[in-house]
Amino acid sequence: MALQPFLALGVVLFGLGLFGALTKRNIIIVLISIEMMLNAANINLVAFSHFSQPASIEGQVYALFSIAIAAAEVAVGLAILLAYFRSRNSADVKDVDLMKW
Amino acid sequence: MLFGIPITGQTISYFVLALIIMISGVMLMSLNKVMHMAVALGGVFLGVAGIFILLGADFVGMVQILIYAGAITILMVFALMLTQRGDDTASPSANGWRTAGVLVFVVLLCGAFLLVLRGTTWPVSQSAVNPYSQPTVNLIANALFHAYTVPFELVSLLLTVALVGAVVIARKEEE
Fold first, then answer.
1. Is B131–A39 a contact, with Cβ atoms under 8 angstroms apart?
2. Where do the domains of chain A lie, and which CATH numbers do they carry?
3. pLDDT reported for residue B127
4. Residue of B1, B48, B102, B104 to mutate, testing the A interface (most A Cβ within 10 Å of its Cβ)
5. Mean pLDDT of all residues belonging to chain B
6. Chain B from 91 to 150: CB within 8 A of any A CB
7. pLDDT, tens only, B118-173
8. Spatial contact of B52 and B22, defined as CB atoms under 8 Å apart
């Protein structure tokens, strides 16, 4: 199998995530869409790791780092969401205007 | 041969997994029941894990199942359940014109990416199912603990900081 199908799958997944992140109004759905975009990047990393000559493990190591950082991002993002929901009683992107003037 | 693509176990599993990922992703974007969204999210993550295992990255695939399909999906479900009040539906999308505009933009962007992908001659192409010389766990362990020791330690530091920060941010403020 060639490299291109995997990269194309990454492009499609990235596009889906980008669409969700730009149109959805629920903050959690936006976070989920960002996770999908990160996953698309991970697919590319692992695919290049598999198809490089000779096969090198670096791409997988970078994918692992990326997964760890995505986990940290989700934890902090959901904590911010909960604190925000407690003060505003809403999870809508439109209501996040506390620092807007 | 079908449309110039050889029918092997690898291509069949690739197409099945890609179909699972795309259907789950489209369902995720079009459904409006929150719990259905969570199930679709699990489908996307499991499909990506299958792609990793198909690419010979079994350790990364298992980590993907553990962290994404396990931990992050459950965390998202908890957050969705904590922030929904009575009605089970997510808040509606933005207005129609904006959604249509974003859709056109995303489709054009993806089309441009795919054209570039098609036009570039990639220097690497091989058909081996598992091109690695050793089991990937050995290779990853060697890379992490020899070449990438400092980034590895920094990631552990980052995870600790994120954990403490999440607890501090989400804590109820005392009056």
1. no
2. 4-89 (1.10.287.3510)
3. 57
4. B48
5. 84
6. 91-94, 98-99, 102-103, 106-107, 109-110, 113-114, 117-118, 122-128, 131-133, 136, 139-140, 142-144, 148
7. 888 876 655 566 677 788 888 899 889 998 999 999 999 999 999 999 999 888 77
8. no
Residue of B16, B52, B81 to mutate for A, most A C-beta atoms under 10 A: B52
For chain B, what are the domain ranges? 1-91, 132-175
Q: Output B108 or A83, whichever has higher pLDDT.
A: B108
CATH code of the domain occupying B1-91:
1.20.120.1200
